[in-house]
Design a protein that fits this description.
Elements: H1 2-6, H2 8-26, H3 31-50, H4 52-60, H5 64-90, H6 107-113, E1 120-125, H7 132-144, E2 148-153, H8 159-164, E3 171-174, E4 181-184, E5 186-191, E6 194-199, H9 207-219, E7 223-229, H10 245-253, E8 256-262, H11 263-266
Parallel strand pairs: 1-2, 7-8
Antiparallel strand pairs: 1-5, 3-4, 5-6
Length: about 270
């Protein structure tokens, strides 16, 4: 058993190398690869531990060949551990333990985010620059797709950039209920030559605002929904209890164009 463990470092290095090569080919780091790296690392460490006496003796005899081989194994293992640490930083798994899932995106938002296939940049114009609540929201999108990036811009400190994007809607207001000071701003979403704007005056940017902007860019052409009229149907512009204005607003947020079709006039 001891003799087998002495040679286990080569097997461990081979297992680790296979996991790394698999990632370089597929660009996907799975739990199986993590297990492979851990197992490979354990084999290398166990082998070096068993050969510790030989390593010390080899160093005492100044055996160049043995010393070089051992050094290479150690350096290679440290390199692999550093690589795994880097991958861990790039593939952070967030767990939302709140019952309301306030730190998670909805299934609809995740579905839209997964359709982003090219670099998508979000420029967030806020007074004072980086704004915590908006950053937390944008970070949820970035965590789901590494093609999404964002940056905060203070329009007062970088007026030339604000002017370039025609940004005028930003400021600070107070929540009438809590008295909390809240910043409002403008988000510019860009991808593949297409641009969408999210402008807020007296309310914060919400998940549905960002998702709708992404949906418009990803899907491009809008679909049209017609509401028939002429036979006593509900009015889609009616704000009263029996009106359909809320239905219209909801569909427009989902990137649909709403039109009416008067069957009496058509006939």
């Amino acid at each position: 058993m001891k003799e087998q463990l002495k040679k286990a470092d080569l097997l461990g290095l081979a297992i680790i190398a296979a996991a790394v090569i698999s990632y370089s080919v597929r660009s996907i780091w799975s739990p199986y690869q993590t297990i492979a790296v851990v197992v490979g690392g354990v084999l290398v460490v166990a082998s070096l531990a068993v050969k510790s006496d030989e390593i010390r003796a080899g160093l005492g005899r100044r055996s160049a060949r043995f010393g070089i081989n051992s050094a290479v194994s150690v350096v290679f293992l440290l390199g692999i551990l550093a690589f795994v640490n880097y991958l861990g930083a790039q593939h952070v798994k967030r767990v939302d333990m709140t019952t309301e899932k306030i730190y998670s995106l909805s299934d609809q938002s995740v579905n839209v985010v997964q359709q982003v296939k090219q670099d998508l940049r979000i420029k967030a114009f806020y007074p004072g620059g980086e704004y915590g609540p908006a950053k937390d929201l944008l970070e949820l999108y970035k965590a789901k797709n590494n093609k999404i990036s964002y940056e905060f811009i203070d329009p007062d400190k970088q007026p030339q950039v604000a002017q370039q994007y025609n940004v005028t809607q930003y400021g600070e207001f107070q929540n009438p209920l809590s008295g909390e000071s809240i910043r409002s701003g403008t988000l510019i979403v860009e991808m593949g030559g297409k641009t969408e704007r999210i402008e807020k005056q007296s309310e914060p940017v919400r998940e549905e605002d960002v998702t709708n902007a992404l949906m418009k860019i990803v899907k491009g052409q809008k679909k049209t929904i017609y509401f028939v009229q002429g036979h006593g149907e509900k009015n889609i512009d009616d704000n009263e209890k029996n009106g359909y204005s809320n239905v219209k607003a909801g569909l427009e947020k989902d990137n649909y164009v709403i039109k009416t079709l008067n069957l009496v006039q058509e006939n």
